[in-house]
Amino acid sequence: MHIVVVGSTKPTQLTWNGSILLDPQGEFHTIYGVHQRSVYFIRPDGYIGLRSQPINEKQLLDYVSKIFYL
């Protein structure tokens, strides 16, 4: 999984230790119509598996657990 952040630097409050993709021009956010803090789980085939606006951590963890049989 990756976190996509608008901007050219990692936010200091972000504690994620995984992959972080920087989006300095906001292109990813424009393509997906993101206007607020959000979680998008985009499948390898390009389809959106989950969208959460505002961020709902429990919903994301439940989805990931279901997909990866955790």
The total count of strands amounts to 4
Q: What about the largest sheet?
A: 2 strands, parallel
The largest sheet has its strands arranged as 1-2
> What is the CA–CA distance across the termini?
15 Å
- Could you name the ranges where pLDDT drops below 50 across 5 or more consecutive residues? none
- Number of helical stretches of at least 4 residues: 2
SS content category = alpha+beta
Fraction of helical residues:
10-25%
What is the approximate shape?
globular
Mean of the pLDDT scores?
Answer: 85
Strand content: 25-35%
Q: How many distinct folded domains?
A: 1
The Rg value, from CA coordinates, equals 12 Å
Order of helical and strand elements: EEHEEH
Concise structural overview:
The chain has 70 residues and is an alpha+beta fold. The protein has 2 helices and 4 strands, in the order E-E-H-E-E-H. A two-stranded parallel sheet has the order 1-2. Strands 3-4 form a two-stranded antiparallel ribbon.
Write a concise keyword list for the protein shown above:
70 residues; alpha+beta; two-stranded parallel sheet; two-stranded antiparallel ribbon; 23% helix
Provide a descriptive summary of the structure in words.
This protein is α+β, with helices and mostly antiparallel strands and 70 residues long. The protein has one domain (2-67). The protein contains 2 helices and 4 strands, in the order ββαββα. The chain has helices at 27-31, 57-67, and strands spanning 2-6, 19-23, 39-42, 48-52. The protein has a two-stranded parallel ribbon. A two-stranded antiparallel ribbon has the order 3-4. The longest helix is centred in the C-terminal third of the chain and has 11 residues, at 57-67. It is globular, with a radius of gyration of 12 Å. The mean pLDDT is 85.
